[in-house]
Design brief:
Blueprint (H helix, E strand, L loop, with lengths): L10 E3 L3 E8 L2 E6 L13 H6 L2 H10 L8 H9 L1
Antiparallel strand pairs: 1-2, 2-3
Length: about 80
Amino acid sequence: MIPTGLKVGDTFEDNGTYKVTKVVGDNYESIRVGETLPEMPFADNKEDYESMPYASLKKLCAEKGLDAKGSKSELIARLEG
């Protein structure tokens, strides 16, 4: 049984060890500890950047040494150089 009151980063046991990755109300998204989330392929055009989640754009900016703060459109503009 999954405990209540979990926060992102907490772990719990349920036929394996899981780590909470997202909390929405009383619902949790989690990943089994030891597994990794699949990497989203990154493309080099605006249309693909537009379809990417904000968090992925921030991560990509940081990986490329760009400022990762601002709106989604600001991040896309930086990535497009």
